[in-house]
Amino acid sequence: MAIPIHAKEDRRAWKRYVVLLKGKYLLDNFRHYKECIVIDISRQGACIKTPIEHNVSRGDAICLELVTDKANCLKINAEVQWTKTIEHGSLIGIKFESLFDIQATKIL
């Protein structure tokens, strides 16, 4: 179940939801998708946790793949906004190229 984030200091245009979704991501310099966990998501972007550190920069292209149910896969093109090295990996903030309807994707 997704939990909306209601922080006074959060000035984002779209409501963010805390989620723990399995996903895959592809950076320009990769040949294959790598696994990740989506930590939070909104209509405009997401924060993903990767198991390894990456040398990525703001503006780099990234493709996020989410499985919405057994038959459907959602691929979202995005741009890296920020990165943070953490223990056992990285957090990567991404902005989607276009808005999408989270409720319609059935990922929440």
List keywords for this structure.
4% helix, single chain, Thrombin, subunit H, six-stranded antiparallel barrel, 108 residues, 52% strand, mainly beta, 7 strands
Largest sheet, in brief, is: 6 strands, antiparallel, barrel
Biggest sheet: strands side by side, in what order? 2-3-4-7-6-5
Instruction: Give the name of the CATH superfamily.
Output: predicted glycosyltransferase like domains
Strand content range: over 45%
User: Please, how many helices?
Assistant: 1
| The top level CATH class name | Mainly Beta
Radius of gyration: 13 Å
- Count the domains: 1
Shape: globular
| Alpha-carbon distance between the two ends | 6 Å
Proportion in helices = under 10%
On the 0-100 scale, what is the average pLDDT?
A: 83
Number of strands: 7
From the helix content, strand content and strand pairing, which structural class follows?
Answer: mainly beta
Low-confidence stretches: none
Written as H for each helix and E for each strand, in order along the chain, the element string is: EEEEEEEH
Might you state the CATH topology name? Thrombin, subunit H
CATH architecture verdict: Beta Barrel
Outline the structure in words.
The chain has 108 residues and is mainly beta. It has a single domain, classed as Beta Barrel (Thrombin, subunit H), CATH 2.40.10.220. 4% of the residues lie in helices and 52% in strands. It is built from 1 helix and 7 strands, in the order E-E-E-E-E-E-E-H. Strands 2-3-4-7-6-5 form a 6-stranded antiparallel beta barrel. Strand 6 (73-86) and strand 7 form a beta hairpin. The longest helix is centred in the last third of the chain and has 4 residues, at 102-105. It starts with a strand and ends with a helix. 21% of the residues are buried. The model has no long low-confidence stretch (mean pLDDT 83).
